[in-house]
Write a structure and sequence with these properties.
This protein is of the alpha+beta class and about 450 residues long. It is built from 14 helices and eight strands. The strands form two sheets. Strands 1-4-5-8 form a four-stranded mixed beta sheet. It has a four-stranded antiparallel beta sheet with strand order 2-3-7-6, with no helix packed on it. The longest helix has 29 residues, at about 300-330. It is globular, with a radius of gyration of 22 Å. Mean pLDDT is about 90; it is low at about 1-10.
Length: about 450
């Protein structure tokens, strides 16, 4: 029935994705390489259909873009290239880049030719991101960068990085930051080291930049305007990571020249879960936990049923908030702080999913495969979902931290949306070099 409804919708002449189904019939070929397929998808505007039509998109709404993704999946075609290029770098360049920069970077993003990472956080500048210490000094037509970044997702396979660095220490800290698109292929100047997590995986990295170079024409948004550009990136990040925000960063095939997927057969990736971490469970945790409770004969437990209903309610609130946002945008308005609220909602849903999953597993919840011995754990417990639940439990603190901590989201809502007073600080008026530094 659902497939019939979707097909009916897709043939409606007024539907902005009406032509996608017939286009897939004519163009999807599982024997194409990943790179060849992404070339077709990106050049036709279906990798990033919410982007402007003149910049490799189709100018449709975000909700219609989500529907387009579902049509791709239902057709059995490989979806668009995932990663931070499509999720963060591309939308930021669409917003702040020059026409020359858009021509230079966007096509390689929608066709998956280049992968991106985000070089924002530092050991002493996480929640206080504007306190970053990485410096970029002008040297002719280039900038020379020195510093350290941390929690860099995908740094080991990135071709390019979204880098924010201090370009003026004689102005207040928010005013002396610039935003660059830096080439990560600088073996003598950029070192990427994996950070192993308690899950046993290494989804994040620390990055050391020593006399790294970036061209002046890779400066996005103008000199010393990096804080405004970075906030655009963060807004897209919170919207993408928030509850109900889709999963633009997820893809079974990895874009870029480093991962080695571009020359592989596209059809071999169809139906695979996304690589790495418990991310594949995040969107379907509710149904998985219900099935887990059934299989454990615990679904009749009134307390567990109450918690499952609470999880369902939170997911429905997120869904309805997205629908409300769509209606507001169609009326030319925005919901203030919607991305921040979505991020907080996602953190809450994930924490509750963790507690429910561990309560169902009981003592078995203390066992974990740590990324290496999942088959042995499945055999020991007789439960193929066990490893997913325990890995999700260990992973669950992460989303409350990355993309801006929950505390940062609450501060933004309080100060920028509700108009509450900020804490006293000199950081908006005092030159950065004169501010007290951490530790």
């Amino acid at each position: 029935m659902t497939d019939t409804i979707d097909r009916a919708e897709a043939t409606d002449a007024d539907d902005p994705i009406a032509e996608l189904g017939p286009w897939l019939d004519a163009n999807w070929d599982p024997d194409l390489t990943v790179g060849e397929w992404w070339e077709r998808l990106g050049n036709e505007g279906w990798s990033a259909p919410a982007w402007p039509a003149e910049w490799y998109g189709r100018g449709i709404s975000r909700e219609d873009a989500v529907r387009a993704g579902k049509v791709l999946a239902d057709h059995g075609a490989l979806g668009p290239p995932g990663g931070l290029g499509l999720l963060l770098a591309g939308p930021t360049i669409v917003t702040h880049g020059t026409d020359e920069q858009k021509h230079r970077y966007l096509r390689d993003i929608v066709t998956g030719q280049k992968a991106w990472c985000q070089l924002f956080s530092e050991p002493g500048a996480g929640s206080d991101l504007a306190g970053l210490q990485t410096r970029a000094l002008k040297d002719g037509d280039e900038w020379v960068v020195n510093g350290q970044k941390v929690w860099t997702s995908g740094g080991q396979v990135a071709d390019l990085g979204m880098l924010i660095a201090r370009t003026d220490a004689d102005v207040p800290k928010h005013q002396g930051i610039s935003y660059f698109a830096i080439d990560m292929h600088q073996a003598d100047a950029i070192e990427v080291r994996p950070l192993k997590e308690m899950t046993g995986r290494a989804l994040f990295n620390e990055v050391f930049l020593t006399e790294a170079r970036v061209n002046d024409d890779a400066l996005i948004g103008g000199h010393n305007n990096g804080w405004a550009v970075a906030n655009t990136t963060l807004a897209f990040e919170r919207a993408g990571l928030g509850a109900g925000g889709g999963s633009a960063a997820a893809s079974p095939a990895t874009p870029g020249t480093m991962a080695g997927d571009l020359d592989k057969r596209a059809g071999d990736f169809v139906g695979r879960a996304r690589r790495g971490g418990p991310g594949g469970m995040l969107g379907g945790a509710e149904q998985l936990l219900i099935e887990l409770a059934k299989g454990s004969d615990k679904l009749a437990d009134p307390v567990l049923r109450q918690e499952l209903m609470r999880l369902h309610t939170f997911n429905e609130l997120a869904r309805f908030t997205n629908l409300r946002g769509k209606a507001e945008r169609e009326a030319g308005r925005e919901i203030p702080g919607a991305g921040n609220l979505a991020k907080l909602s996602m953190s809450r849903i994930l924490r509750l999913s963790r507690e429910i999953g561990l309560s169902i597993l009981g003592g078995y919840g203390t066992l974990h495969a740590y990324g290496n011995d999942r088959k042995a754990l499945d055999e020991a417990t007789g439960n193929p979902f066990h490893a997913m639940v325990t890995e999700l439990a260990l992973f669950s603190p992460g989303p409350s931290i990355y993309g801006g901590t929950d505390e940062v989201q609450r501060n933004i809502i309080g100060e920028r949306i509700l108009g509450l007073p900020k804490e006293p600080s000199n950081d908006r008026t005092m030159p950065f070099r004169d501010l007290p530094k951490n530790g």
